[in-house]
Amino acid sequence: MSRRALHLFGLAAILGMVLVLRREAFLEQWSNPALDARVATRFVVIAPVLCMLLGLRDVLALWRPARETTQKGGSRAEGHEGPPRPAGHGRGPYRVAMRRFAENRLAMAGLYAIAGLCLVAILAPLLAPFDPTAIDDPVATRHLPPSAEHPFGTDEYGRDWLSRALYGARVSLSVAILAVMVAVTVGTIYGAVAGYFGGFVDNALMRIVDVIMAFPTFFLMLMLVGVFEASLLALVLIMGLTSWTGTARFIRGEILSLKERDFIEAARAMGLPHRIIIFRHLIPNALAPVLVSAALMVGGMIGAEAGLSFLGIGIRPPTPSWGNMVSQGQDAIFVAWWVALFPGLLLSITILSFNLLADGLRDALDPKTLMRKYV
Fold first, then answer.
1. What is the pLDDT of residues 309-340, one digit of tens each?
2. Between 161-197 and 288-310, two packed helices, what is the crossing angle to 10 degrees?
3. What b/e string do you get for 205-220 counting C-beta neighbours within 10 Å, with b at 16 or more?
4. How crowded is residue 286: how many other Cβ atoms within 10 Å of its Cβ?
5. Which residues partner with 154 through β-bridges?
């Protein structure tokens, strides 16, 4: 059985356990009109079915060639095995890269941790034992230490800290990932255009990048967040549109080397328009460093969102995010240590996981080692 099939079956089993163990919460959230509740309940029903079907397809794909070989009865007699296959036959460079990444234990640990955090964020309405914003009896439930009923304790208003941490994962991860998508998209297109056309266009676009990079990114975020209302969408756009310059420089450098290759000259000779050459031939061949940069940027974006929320100008309470949870815990660090400890640990684990993922991608996609193993 392939590793991917094992992962798919394992994910289906985990989601099935969540559905069984949290069936009361599932039935309660099924009729909830809120978008997060609908996404969580539909995901926990549809995802296991898809995982099982994809896993069975992989198993059948592995079983079918073995059965055909058995039925042929060893048709290749001794001395008639055919010509030997060349080294690397059937293994493209990206397949080799995936295998190299899978052999990196730290990178796989980071990938598993990120997948688990994303799964927890999606299923937060089902996994959270309490309403994250409910204030029942703050006098009796204020600053309760970690226990079986409240594994992460409670805050000064008596709110369950585990529930707020689960919902805070959705906010922190979604803001960071969406901001990175904005930054990578803008930076990739901008850098590809600058590197492809070169000359005056390249000089003009790169000078704009130099001007933007002259301002410290975090302080530029602070200024823009202070000007505009700190809504979720505004925060994503501000963080994304102030962090694309590094990606633009990466892509520009790759495009400058790729545009002189023979396949690009052939595309020009065929009369293909510039947009086809850029988006179909150049950008796909220049994405390896961008993937590494994007993984690093997600960790940085999570830290930036936490810093903005810690300063009180990011995600505003009562909406939970790991940043404003840590900010809330600083005033009670000597009275209720758990209020700052648990969201701080989640922040550290998440950023470390994305850094490990980026290191694994960098090692797996290194052109020198990749081509040495491929050839």
1. 777 777 777 888 888 888 887 777 788 888 88
2. 140
3. bbeebeebeeeebbeb
4. 23
5. 160
Helix axes 93-103, 105-122, angle to 10 degrees: 90
Is the preceding omega at residue 318 within 30 degrees of 0, hence cis?
yes
pTM of the model: 0.82
d(CA 173, CA 179): 10
Neighbours of 97 (CB within 10 A): 21
**Predicted confidence band at 237 (pLDDT cuts at 50, 70, 90)?**
confident
The identity of residue 158, as a single letter, is G
SS3 content of the chain, % helix, strand, coil (to 5): 75, 0, 25
The full DSSP string for 172-211 is HHHHHHHHHHHHHHHHHHHHHHHHHH-HHHHHHHHHHHHH
For tokens 């079915």, the residue is 49
The token pair that represents 158 in the structure block? 């008596």
Kindly state the tokens that stand for 152. Answer: 């992460």
Map tokens 């000078």 to a residue: 207
Contacts of 191 (CB under 8 A, 6+ apart): 247, 248, 249, 250, 251, 252, 255
